[in-house]
């Protein structure tokens, strides 16, 4: 059987090697601490699970649903945007429910992009940001996000020099994997550029609910006239611990949302209604739990970053998101690839991390550690990493002092 070229042209999954080794280790009985994937390990609050069970018992909720999502859920999203960001949206035309934001994002790329169209994508990249464009037959230009001023000026430069001009700009703050964040003024400038050069914007706001030390990630849609040029995706996967439920939202530009709705109308019959009803309850009643969950991630961040620094690995604590983006320390940075360094931590230390190269060439030299294990497991991970890296006497001493904490 010969699959389509759009399938065969996709590169091998970069995390495949790590995942296969992780699986083998676990099968052999090793207790691997998995900081690889950003898969929340805590459950949603009971109230939400109870509502799901109750709604699942109602025979009216088992048929096909509306592929845009039920109106009351879209209203709830509208009200969250207004309360939190002061953004006014029309639930009929400017909000759509998606089967997780990844599904919505991918289908939005399919709705907007075609052969000859170009999208600007942040680098390093959450893989779907690149491959959803590629699967839609579009071209990708990757621009580094590390320095936001440079990112903005590179966007302007690309628009001035590329013909035809880029059609789409993809943004993702708080950024996965680097944890880069921005303030509202950044989005103000993006809207100005989008209006000037005529590109559309998709903001992937997956980590809207996970921020630390009082930082409040701004919404792209809160910038004046943002909804004239783009949309924003949010999700219940991260802050609400509902990753397996597959609940996400697209909000903003009505024309873009209509195009997404057209594609979705062909591809799916909407989300299980019981889940949508439970999602309404989650959005309406569990704000305090979402904040408590962010606090938990903050504590884990402190444990992991503090521990790594004590064993001599200098990492910058993130202001938001679920990840620590850590430069591979010397001497390993010059001795081996990021993939081999990640394999070393797994093989010798029983700790799984994501190699930065899995996020494209701009990620080489870094590994990403997800804050998805509890504090004790994170302390244990630091000890195991320390033992693995303790080639020098100095590092061994540091590891020993960490052991006494
Ligand atoms: C930047 C980013 N966008 C989107 C997603 C996917 O979210 P969802 O579960 O809503 O599809 C993730 C998940 O890891 C992510 O990191």
Bound molecules: pyridoxal-5'-phosphate
Order of helices and strands: HHEHHEHEHEHEHEHEEHHHEHHEEEHH
Please report the distance between the alpha carbons of the first and last residues.
58 Å
Residue-averaged pLDDT:
94
Identify the overall geometry: globular
Task: Name the descriptors.
405 residues; alpha/beta; 7-stranded mixed sheet; 3-stranded antiparallel sheet; 16 helices; 12 strands; disordered C terminus; binds pyridoxal-5'-phosphate
In short:
Helix content is 46%, strand content 13%. The protein is an alpha/beta fold and 405 residues long. Strand 5 (168-171), helix 8 (184-197) and strand 6 form a beta-alpha-beta unit.
Task: Characterise this structure.
This protein has 405 residues and is of the alpha/beta class. It is globular and about 60 Å long. The longest helix is centred in the last third of the chain and has 24 residues. The N and C termini lie far apart (58 Å). It has 16 helices and 12 strands. The site of pyridoxal-5'-phosphate has 13 residues, from helix 5.
Set down the secondary structure blueprint.
Elements: H1 5-8, H2 16-27, E1 33-34, H3 46-56, H4 71-85, E2 95-98, H5 101-112, E3 118-123, H6 127-135, E4 139-144, H7 148-161, E5 168-171, H8 184-197, E6 200-204, H9 226-229, E7 230-235, E8 248-252, H10 254-267, H11 273-285, H12 287-310, E9 323-327, H13 332-335, H14 338-349, E10 351-352, E11 354-355, E12 366-370, H15 375-389, H16 393-403
Helix pairs in contact: 2-14, 3-11, 4-11, 5-6, 5-10, 7-8, 12-15, 14-15, 15-16
The protein binds pyridoxal-5'-phosphate.
């Amino acid at each position: 059987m010969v699959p389509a070229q759009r399938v065969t042209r996709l590169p091998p999954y970069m995390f495949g090697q790590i995942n296969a080794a992780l699986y083998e280790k676990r099968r052999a009985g090793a207790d691997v601490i998995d900081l690889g994937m950003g898969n929340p390990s805590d459950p949603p609050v009971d109230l939400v699970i109870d509502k799901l069970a109750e709604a699942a018992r109602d025979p009216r909720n088992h048929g096909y649903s509306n592929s845009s999502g039920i109106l009351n859920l879209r209203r709830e999203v509208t009200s969250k945007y207004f309360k939190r960001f002061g953004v006014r949206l029309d639930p009929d035309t400017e909000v759509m429910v998606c089967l997780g934001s990844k599904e919505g994002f991918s289908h939005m790329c399919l709705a907007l992009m075609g052969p000859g169209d170009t999208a600007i994508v942040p680098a390093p990249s959450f893989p779907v940001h690149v491959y959803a464009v590629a699967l839609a037959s579009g071209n990708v230009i990757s621009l580094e996000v590390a320095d936001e001023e440079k990112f903005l000026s590179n966007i302007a430069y690309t628009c001035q020099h590329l013909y035809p001009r880029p059609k789409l700009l993809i943004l993702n703050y708080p950024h996965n994997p680097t944890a880069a964040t921005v303030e509202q003024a950044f989005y103000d400038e993006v809207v100005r550029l989008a209006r000037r050069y005529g590109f559309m914007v998709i903001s992937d706001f997956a980590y809207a609910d996970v921020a630390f030390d009082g930082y409040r990630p701004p919404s792209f849609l809160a910038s004046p006239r943002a909804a004239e040029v783009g949309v924003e995706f949010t999700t219940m996967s991260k802050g609400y611990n509902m990753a397996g439920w597959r609940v996400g939202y697209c909000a903003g530009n009505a024309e873009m949302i209509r195009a997404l709705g057209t594609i979705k109308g062909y591809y799916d019959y909407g989300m299980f209604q019981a889940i949508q009803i439970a999602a309404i309850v989650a959005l309406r009643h569990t704000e305090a739990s979402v904040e408590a969950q962010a606090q938990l991630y903050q504590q884990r961040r402190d444990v992991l970053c503090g521990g790594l620094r004590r064993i001599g690995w200098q990492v910058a604590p993130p202001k938001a998101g679920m990840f620590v983006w850590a430069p591979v320390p010397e001497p390993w940075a010059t001795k081996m690839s990021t993939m081999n360094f990640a394999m070393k931590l797994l093989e010798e230390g029983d700790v799984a991390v994501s190699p930065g190269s899995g996020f494209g060439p701009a990620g080489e030299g870094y590994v990403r550690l997800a804050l998805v294990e509890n504090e004790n497991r994170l302390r244990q991970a630091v000890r195991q990493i320390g033992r693995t890296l303790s080639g020098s006497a100095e590092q061994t001493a540091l590891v020993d002092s960490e052991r006494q904490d």
